[in-house]
Amino acid sequence: MNSKELIIEAGRTESQYWRDLWKYRELFYFLAWRDILVRYKQTIIGMAWALIRPFLTMVVFSVVFGSLAKLPTEGNTPYPIMVFAALLPWQFFSGALSECSNSLINNANLLSKVYFPRLIVPTSAVIVSFVDFMISGIILLGLMAYYNFIPDWRILTLPLFILIAFAASMGTGLWLAALNVEYRDFRYIVPFIVQFGLYISPVGFSSQVVPPEWRLIYSLNPMVGVIDGFRWAILGGESQIYFPGFALSTGLVVLILVSGIWYFRRMERTFADVV
Questions:
Q1: According to a count of CB atoms within 10 Å of the terminal CB, is the N or C end of the chain lower?
Q2: What are the CA-CA distances from residue 129 to residues 75, 102, 193, 211 (Å)?
Q3: For residue 209, what are the contacts with CB-CB under 8 A and spacing of at least 6?
Q4: Each residue of 80-104: pLDDT tens digit?
Q5: Is-above-0.90 flag for pTM?
Q6: How wide is the angle at C-alpha 103 spanned by C-alphas 36 and 101, nearest 5°?
Q7: Angle at the Cα of 80 (from 53 to 155), degrees rounded to 5?
Protein backbone atom coordinates (compact mmCIF):
# COMPACT_ATOMS: atom_id res chain seq x y z
CA MET A 1 0.00 0.00 0.00
CA ASN A 2 1.44 3.39 -1.00
CA SER A 3 1.51 6.09 1.64
CA LYS A 4 2.44 9.74 1.30
CA GLU A 5 3.88 11.91 4.04
CA LEU A 6 1.92 15.08 4.73
CA ILE A 7 3.78 17.96 6.36
CA ILE A 8 1.70 20.81 7.77
CA GLU A 9 4.01 23.77 8.04
CA ALA A 10 3.12 26.39 10.66
CA GLY A 11 2.34 29.76 9.13
CA ARG A 12 2.44 28.44 5.59
CA THR A 13 -1.06 27.01 5.28
CA GLU A 14 -1.94 29.47 2.52
CA SER A 15 0.89 28.35 0.24
CA GLN A 16 0.30 24.62 0.77
CA TYR A 17 -3.51 24.76 0.81
CA TRP A 18 -4.04 24.57 -2.95
CA ARG A 19 -1.42 21.84 -3.29
CA ASP A 20 -3.29 19.88 -0.61
CA LEU A 21 -6.47 20.10 -2.68
CA TRP A 22 -4.73 18.04 -5.34
CA LYS A 23 -3.16 15.67 -2.79
CA TYR A 24 -6.59 14.93 -1.33
CA ARG A 25 -8.29 14.33 -4.70
CA GLU A 26 -9.02 10.72 -3.74
CA LEU A 27 -11.01 11.97 -0.73
CA PHE A 28 -12.92 14.23 -3.10
CA TYR A 29 -13.75 11.23 -5.35
CA PHE A 30 -14.83 9.20 -2.32
CA LEU A 31 -17.10 11.89 -0.86
CA ALA A 32 -18.72 12.62 -4.23
CA TRP A 33 -19.36 8.91 -4.93
CA ARG A 34 -20.64 8.34 -1.39
CA ASP A 35 -23.08 11.27 -1.66
CA ILE A 36 -24.36 10.01 -5.02
CA LEU A 37 -25.03 6.56 -3.54
CA VAL A 38 -26.65 7.94 -0.36
CA ARG A 39 -28.88 10.31 -2.34
CA TYR A 40 -30.88 7.46 -3.85
CA LYS A 41 -30.27 4.80 -1.20
CA GLN A 42 -33.35 2.73 -0.34
CA THR A 43 -35.37 4.29 -3.16
CA ILE A 44 -37.33 1.94 -5.40
CA ILE A 45 -36.56 3.61 -8.72
CA GLY A 46 -33.16 5.08 -7.78
CA MET A 47 -31.70 7.66 -10.17
CA ALA A 48 -34.93 7.68 -12.18
CA TRP A 49 -35.98 10.40 -9.71
CA ALA A 50 -33.48 12.64 -11.50
CA LEU A 51 -35.70 12.25 -14.58
CA ILE A 52 -39.16 12.25 -13.00
CA ARG A 53 -38.86 15.47 -10.98
CA PRO A 54 -37.75 17.81 -13.81
CA PHE A 55 -40.12 16.12 -16.28
CA LEU A 56 -43.19 16.68 -14.07
CA THR A 57 -42.07 20.26 -13.33
CA MET A 58 -41.74 20.87 -17.07
CA VAL A 59 -45.26 19.52 -17.67
CA VAL A 60 -46.78 21.72 -14.95
CA PHE A 61 -44.97 24.86 -16.14
CA SER A 62 -45.93 24.21 -19.77
CA VAL A 63 -49.60 23.84 -18.84
CA VAL A 64 -49.72 26.82 -16.43
CA PHE A 65 -47.59 29.34 -18.34
CA GLY A 66 -47.97 28.11 -21.92
CA SER A 67 -51.56 26.78 -22.12
CA LEU A 68 -53.42 28.70 -19.38
CA ALA A 69 -51.51 32.00 -19.15
CA LYS A 70 -50.81 31.95 -22.93
CA LEU A 71 -47.31 33.37 -22.46
CA PRO A 72 -45.27 33.40 -25.69
CA THR A 73 -42.41 31.05 -26.42
CA GLU A 74 -39.16 32.14 -28.06
CA GLY A 75 -39.49 32.04 -31.86
CA ASN A 76 -41.09 28.83 -33.07
CA THR A 77 -39.64 26.70 -30.29
CA PRO A 78 -42.16 24.31 -28.67
CA TYR A 79 -43.02 25.60 -25.18
CA PRO A 80 -41.92 22.44 -23.31
CA ILE A 81 -38.43 22.66 -24.86
CA MET A 82 -38.14 26.34 -23.91
CA VAL A 83 -39.14 25.50 -20.33
CA PHE A 84 -36.80 22.54 -20.03
CA ALA A 85 -33.83 24.51 -21.41
CA ALA A 86 -34.25 26.70 -18.31
CA LEU A 87 -35.09 23.90 -15.88
CA LEU A 88 -31.72 22.24 -16.50
CA PRO A 89 -29.56 25.06 -15.03
CA TRP A 90 -32.15 25.97 -12.40
CA GLN A 91 -32.43 22.45 -10.97
CA PHE A 92 -28.64 22.19 -10.95
CA PHE A 93 -28.37 25.50 -9.10
CA SER A 94 -31.13 24.80 -6.56
CA GLY A 95 -29.89 21.25 -5.91
CA ALA A 96 -26.33 22.50 -5.37
CA LEU A 97 -27.52 25.09 -2.84
CA SER A 98 -29.43 22.49 -0.84
CA GLU A 99 -26.56 19.99 -0.88
CA CYS A 100 -23.82 22.54 -0.15
CA SER A 101 -25.59 24.31 2.70
CA ASN A 102 -25.73 21.13 4.80
CA SER A 103 -22.51 19.50 3.57
CA LEU A 104 -20.27 20.72 6.41
CA ILE A 105 -22.85 19.89 9.11
CA ASN A 106 -23.38 16.41 7.68
CA ASN A 107 -19.61 15.77 7.76
CA ALA A 108 -19.06 17.23 11.25
CA ASN A 109 -17.28 14.12 12.54
CA LEU A 110 -14.83 14.20 9.65
CA LEU A 111 -14.12 17.91 10.07
CA SER A 112 -13.33 17.65 13.77
CA LYS A 113 -10.94 14.69 13.53
CA VAL A 114 -8.88 14.84 10.35
CA TYR A 115 -6.97 17.58 8.53
CA PHE A 116 -7.83 18.14 4.89
CA PRO A 117 -8.83 21.18 2.83
CA ARG A 118 -12.46 21.76 3.82
CA LEU A 119 -13.20 23.13 0.36
CA ILE A 120 -13.42 19.49 -0.78
CA VAL A 121 -16.70 18.95 1.11
CA PRO A 122 -19.00 21.54 -0.56
CA THR A 123 -17.32 20.95 -3.93
CA SER A 124 -18.13 17.23 -3.80
CA ALA A 125 -21.73 18.18 -2.90
CA VAL A 126 -22.00 20.28 -6.06
CA ILE A 127 -20.80 17.31 -8.12
CA VAL A 128 -23.84 15.29 -6.92
CA SER A 129 -26.18 17.92 -8.36
CA PHE A 130 -24.11 18.03 -11.53
CA VAL A 131 -24.67 14.28 -12.00
CA ASP A 132 -28.44 14.90 -11.74
CA PHE A 133 -28.01 17.70 -14.28
CA MET A 134 -26.32 15.35 -16.76
CA ILE A 135 -29.00 12.68 -16.28
CA SER A 136 -31.79 15.26 -16.77
CA GLY A 137 -30.26 16.16 -20.12
CA ILE A 138 -31.71 12.88 -21.42
CA ILE A 139 -35.19 14.45 -21.18
CA LEU A 140 -34.10 17.39 -23.33
CA LEU A 141 -32.82 15.00 -25.98
CA GLY A 142 -36.14 13.13 -25.83
CA LEU A 143 -38.14 16.36 -26.23
CA MET A 144 -36.01 17.39 -29.22
CA ALA A 145 -36.63 14.02 -30.84
CA TYR A 146 -40.38 14.16 -30.08
CA TYR A 147 -40.82 17.66 -31.56
CA ASN A 148 -38.26 17.01 -34.35
CA PHE A 149 -36.31 20.01 -33.06
CA ILE A 150 -32.75 20.32 -34.37
CA PRO A 151 -30.43 22.83 -32.60
CA ASP A 152 -28.06 24.94 -34.68
CA TRP A 153 -24.36 25.77 -34.22
CA ARG A 154 -25.02 27.60 -30.95
CA ILE A 155 -25.30 24.28 -29.15
CA LEU A 156 -21.49 24.10 -29.38
CA THR A 157 -21.29 27.04 -26.94
CA LEU A 158 -23.32 25.21 -24.27
CA PRO A 159 -20.22 24.12 -22.25
CA LEU A 160 -19.44 27.81 -21.64
CA PHE A 161 -22.87 28.39 -20.08
CA ILE A 162 -22.57 25.16 -18.08
CA LEU A 163 -19.32 26.56 -16.69
CA ILE A 164 -21.10 29.79 -15.69
CA ALA A 165 -23.89 27.77 -14.02
CA PHE A 166 -21.26 25.76 -12.16
CA ALA A 167 -19.56 28.96 -10.98
CA ALA A 168 -22.89 30.41 -9.77
CA SER A 169 -23.72 27.19 -7.90
CA MET A 170 -20.25 26.87 -6.39
CA GLY A 171 -19.99 30.50 -5.28
CA THR A 172 -23.43 30.64 -3.67
CA GLY A 173 -22.95 27.16 -2.18
CA LEU A 174 -19.69 28.18 -0.48
CA TRP A 175 -21.36 31.19 1.10
CA LEU A 176 -24.27 29.13 2.42
CA ALA A 177 -22.08 26.23 3.61
CA ALA A 178 -19.88 28.56 5.67
CA LEU A 179 -22.78 30.62 7.01
CA ASN A 180 -24.76 27.50 7.96
CA VAL A 181 -21.96 26.37 10.28
CA GLU A 182 -22.10 29.64 12.21
CA TYR A 183 -25.81 30.37 11.94
CA ARG A 184 -28.11 27.33 11.75
CA ASP A 185 -30.93 29.64 10.67
CA PHE A 186 -29.75 29.06 7.13
CA ARG A 187 -31.19 25.53 7.14
CA TYR A 188 -34.58 27.30 7.06
CA ILE A 189 -33.50 30.15 4.80
CA VAL A 190 -32.13 27.97 1.98
CA PRO A 191 -35.48 26.31 1.07
CA PHE A 192 -37.05 29.78 1.01
CA ILE A 193 -34.28 31.08 -1.27
CA VAL A 194 -34.79 28.14 -3.65
CA GLN A 195 -38.58 28.55 -3.75
CA PHE A 196 -38.49 32.35 -4.06
CA GLY A 197 -35.74 32.16 -6.69
CA LEU A 198 -37.86 29.86 -8.84
CA TYR A 199 -40.62 32.50 -8.96
CA ILE A 200 -38.35 35.42 -9.86
CA SER A 201 -36.22 33.52 -12.40
CA PRO A 202 -37.37 33.05 -16.02
CA VAL A 203 -37.85 29.29 -15.72
CA GLY A 204 -41.52 28.88 -16.70
CA PHE A 205 -41.54 31.85 -19.04
CA SER A 206 -39.21 33.70 -21.37
CA SER A 207 -37.34 36.70 -19.95
CA GLN A 208 -38.42 38.51 -23.14
CA VAL A 209 -41.83 39.10 -21.51
CA VAL A 210 -40.11 41.41 -19.01
CA PRO A 211 -40.57 45.06 -20.14
CA PRO A 212 -37.38 46.45 -21.78
CA GLU A 213 -37.00 49.19 -19.17
CA TRP A 214 -36.79 46.51 -16.44
CA ARG A 215 -34.53 44.00 -18.23
CA LEU A 216 -31.25 45.34 -16.81
CA ILE A 217 -32.58 45.48 -13.24
CA TYR A 218 -34.08 42.00 -13.70
CA SER A 219 -30.61 40.78 -14.66
CA LEU A 220 -29.37 41.56 -11.14
CA ASN A 221 -30.59 38.01 -10.53
CA PRO A 222 -27.48 36.07 -11.66
CA MET A 223 -29.60 33.10 -12.77
CA VAL A 224 -31.27 35.30 -15.42
CA GLY A 225 -28.03 35.44 -17.38
CA VAL A 226 -27.38 31.72 -16.87
CA ILE A 227 -30.87 30.72 -18.04
CA ASP A 228 -30.88 33.13 -20.99
CA GLY A 229 -27.49 31.75 -22.01
CA PHE A 230 -28.77 28.17 -21.91
CA ARG A 231 -31.79 29.10 -24.02
CA TRP A 232 -29.67 31.02 -26.51
CA ALA A 233 -27.37 28.02 -26.95
CA ILE A 234 -30.02 25.29 -27.00
CA LEU A 235 -32.92 26.95 -28.83
CA GLY A 236 -30.88 28.82 -31.44
CA GLY A 237 -32.90 30.39 -34.27
CA GLU A 238 -34.92 33.38 -33.09
CA SER A 239 -33.87 33.09 -29.44
CA GLN A 240 -32.00 36.27 -28.57
CA ILE A 241 -29.83 37.14 -25.63
CA TYR A 242 -29.91 40.55 -23.93
CA PHE A 243 -26.17 41.15 -23.81
CA PRO A 244 -26.10 44.07 -21.28
CA GLY A 245 -28.13 41.96 -18.86
CA PHE A 246 -26.06 38.85 -19.59
CA ALA A 247 -22.83 40.77 -18.94
CA LEU A 248 -24.24 42.07 -15.65
CA SER A 249 -25.37 38.60 -14.52
CA THR A 250 -22.04 37.03 -15.49
CA GLY A 251 -20.12 39.74 -13.63
CA LEU A 252 -22.21 39.04 -10.53
CA VAL A 253 -21.51 35.31 -10.85
CA VAL A 254 -17.76 35.98 -10.90
CA LEU A 255 -18.12 38.28 -7.88
CA ILE A 256 -20.13 35.67 -5.96
CA LEU A 257 -17.60 32.93 -6.76
CA VAL A 258 -14.54 34.96 -5.76
CA SER A 259 -16.17 36.34 -2.61
CA GLY A 260 -17.53 32.86 -1.75
CA ILE A 261 -14.03 31.32 -1.90
CA TRP A 262 -12.65 34.24 0.13
CA TYR A 263 -15.30 33.96 2.87
CA PHE A 264 -15.08 30.16 3.02
CA ARG A 265 -11.29 30.29 3.38
CA ARG A 266 -11.61 32.99 6.06
CA MET A 267 -14.04 30.94 8.15
CA GLU A 268 -12.51 27.53 7.43
CA ARG A 269 -10.17 27.44 10.44
CA THR A 270 -13.14 27.79 12.83
CA PHE A 271 -15.31 25.02 11.35
CA ALA A 272 -13.93 22.22 13.55
CA ASP A 273 -14.58 24.22 16.73
CA VAL A 274 -18.06 25.47 15.84
CA VAL A 275 -19.61 22.54 14.01
A1: N
A2: 30, 14, 17, 33
A3: 71, 72
A4: 999 999 999 999 999 999 888 888 8
A5: no
A6: 115
A7: 100
